[in-house]
Design a protein that fits this description.
single chain, alpha+beta, Beta-Lactamase, Heat Shock Protein 90, 3 domains, five-stranded antiparallel beta sheet, five-stranded mixed beta sheet, 51% helix
C-alpha cells in the first residue's frame, strides 16, 4: 500500500473574494494614470522653467548692470579721498564689494549653465564686450562682475542669490496640492473604469454557477458603452436561463421516454425468452443501456449544488456496501469517522460510486482476477484528501491527463465497450462543482490512484 498522500500538487480553486497575487485592474489603472499625471506635472514645471529662464537671465543682468553703472558713476564722480569710504559704505549697506582688478588675478568665468551664459551675454551688450562674469576670483567664490572705469579694471562682488531661481512655500504648496488632486483624479477615473468590469465579473461568475436571477446588471449606467454591454449581458443571461430550463425539461423527458420502454422490454424478455443464457445476455444488454442513460443524465445534470457538512465515512460506507457482495472485489478502507467535508451528499456519492466502479472494472490483478481497492482519507487543513487506489495495470502516461475528458477512451487495458467514457468526467465535474480538485496518477507499485481534494467543513 502506498504511503499516506500529501496535499494535491494542483492549483487550489480560486477564492471568491477575487484576491490574487497580481495587482487588480483598479490598482493597475490607478498607478498608470498617477504616473501619467505626475509626469505631466513634471513636464509642465520643466516647460515653465525653460520659458522663465531667459526672462530671469535678462532681468538679473539688468539689475547687475544697473548696479555696476551706479557704482561706476559714484566712483567716477567721487574724488580720490571719498572713494575709500564710499566703497566701504557700499559693502556694508548694499552687500556690494568693489576691488581693483590686478593683472595676476585668477578667475573662473561663469558659463556653467544657460542662466549664466544668458546673463554674461546681456551684461556684455550693456556694459561692453570686456565685461566679465566670474564664478570666483582668487579662489573666492561669488558673483563677480569685471568692468572698467577710465581704463582701470575693477571687480564687483555681489550676492550670488541673484542667480538662484525664485523659491518659496507657495511653489511647494502648489505642487503638493496638484499632486494630491492628480492622485484623487486617478483614483476616481480608475474606479469609474473598474466598477462596471467588476460588476460584470461578479455577474459572469453567478451565471457560471447557474444563478441567473442574481446576475442582472444595471441598464441605467451613465456611459452608453457600459449600458449597451450590460443590456447585452442581461439578454444573454436570460437566454441561457431559458436554455437551462429547456435542457432540464428535455432531460426529464429523455429519462422517462427511454426508461419506460426499456422496462417493458426487459419484462418481455424475462417472460418470452425460454433459453436462460440468451435471456440473461439480453437482460444484461438492457441493463447496460440503462446504465449508459444514467451516465449521460449525471453528466448533463445542472451545475447548482448546495454545499453542507457531510460525513465522508458515511458516504464511503454506503457506496462500499453496494459492491461489497461481489466476490471479485476486496476493499481496504481507512477513513476517519469524524472527517467532515463541504460537499453535496448526492454529488459526493456519485463521485465515490464512479471511482469505485472504475477501480472495480479496471483494477483487477492479473494473478487473482480480484480488484484490490484502497480507500484512504485524511485532513490537511483547510483541505480533506480522499484517495481511491487499485492494483491493476495503470494507464498509459500519455493518456493519463485525458481520462477525465468526456467520451475519451484510453488504451485497451483500461477500456471496455460497456462504458460510455463518462465515469471520470462525471467525477471531475462533480468535484469542481463542490469547489475541489482531482488528480490522477499511476502508482509506483502498479495501478491507478485518484486523489480528490475537498474543503474541510
Amino acid at each position: 500500500m502506498d504511503s499516506s498522500p500529501v496535499p494535491l500538487d494542483v492549483e487550489a480553486p480560486p477564492a471568491r473574494s477575487g484576491a490574487t497575487a497580481r495587482l487588480s485592474l483598479f490598482w493597475r489603472t490607478f498607478f498608470l494614470l498617477a504616473v501619467l499625471l505626475l509626469f505631466s506635472i513634471l513636464a509642465w514645471l520643466q516647460t515653465l522653467r525653460v520659458f522663465e529662464l531667459e526672462p530671469r537671465a535678462v532681468q538679473s543682468a539688468r539689475q547687475i548692470a544697473s548696479l555696476v553703472n551706479l557704482s561706476r558713476a559714484a566712483l567716477v564722480h567721487a574724488d580720490a579721498i571719498a572713494r575709500v569710504p564710499l566703497i566701504k559704505t557700499m559693502s556694508e549697506q548694499e552687500g556690494v564689494r568693489i576691488v581693483p582688478r590686478e593683472p595676476d588675478d585668477r578667475f573662473v568665468v561663469s558659463t556653467a549653465d544657460r542662466l549664466s551664459q544668458g546673463m554674461s551675454s546681456e551684461l556684455k551688450s550693456r556694459l561692453g564686450q570686456d565685461t566679465i562674469l566670474a564664478a570666483s576670483v582668487n579662489d573666492e567664490p561669488g558673483l563677480w562682475v569685471g568692468f572698467t572705469i577710465d581704463g582701470d579694471g575693477y571687480w564687483m562682488l555681489t550676492d550670488r542669490s541673484r542667480l538662484n531661481p525664485p523659491a518659496g512655500t507657495t511653489w511647494i504648496i502648489w505642487l503638493v496640492v496638484a499632486t494630491a488632486l492628480s492622485l484623487a483624479g486617478a483614483a476616481l477615473l480608475a474606479g469609474l473604469i473598474n466598477r462596471p468590469l467588476q460588476d460584470l465579473s461578479v455577474a459572469a461568475a453567478r451565471v457560471r454557477e447557474g444563478n441567473f436571477a442574481a446576475s442582472v446588471l444595471s441598464e441605467s449606467s451613465a456611459g452608453p458603452e457600459i449600458r449597451a454591454v450590460n443590456m447585452e449581458f442581461n439578454r444573454m443571461a436570460q437566454q441561457l436561463a431559458r436554455v437551462e430550463q429547456d435542457r432540464a425539461i428535455m432531460l426529464a423527458g429523455i429519462s422517462h421516454d427511454l426508461r419506460t420502454p426499456l422496462a417493458r422490454l426487459r419484462l418481455e424478455v424475462e417472460l418470452s425468452v425460454a433459453d436462460t443464457q440468451t435471456r440473461d445476455l439480453m437482460a444484461a444488454d438492457i441493463a447496460q443501456v440503462d446504465a449508459i442513460i444514467t451516465k449521460f443524465m449525471d453528466y448533463a445534470r445542472p451545475d447548482q449544488v448546495q454545499l453542507r457538512a457531510v460525513r465522508l465515512a458515511d458516504v464511503v460506507a454506503r457506496q462500499v456496501g453496494v459492491l461489497q457482495h461481489r466476490d471479485d472485489i476486496r476493499f481496504h478502507v481507512e477513513v476517519p469517522p469524524d472527517l467532515l467535508v463541504q460537499a453535496d451528499d448526492v454529488e459526493l456519492s456519485r463521485v465515490i460510486s464512479n471511482l469505485l466502479e472504475n477501480a472495480a472494472r479496471y483494477g483487477k490483478t492479473a494473478a487473482s482476477g480480484v480488484a484490490e481497492i484502497d480507500i484512504w482519507a485524511s485532513a490537511h487543513a483547510p483541505w480533506a484528501l480522499i484517495e481511491v487506489r487499485d492494483q491493476g495495470s495503470g494507464a498509459d502516461p500519455q493518456t493519463l491527463e485525458h481520462l477525465t475528458k468526456a467520451f475519451f477512451r484510453g488504451d485497451v487495458a483500461r477500456t471496455s465497450a460497456t462504458g460510455a467514457g463518462l465515469g471520470l468526467a462525471i467525477v471531475e465535474k462533480n468535484v469542481q462543482r463542490m469547489g475541489g480538485a482531482i488528480q490522477l496518477r499511476n502508482r509506483a507499485s502498479g495501478g491507478l490512484a485518484a486523489r480528490i481534494q475537498l474543503r474541510l467543513a
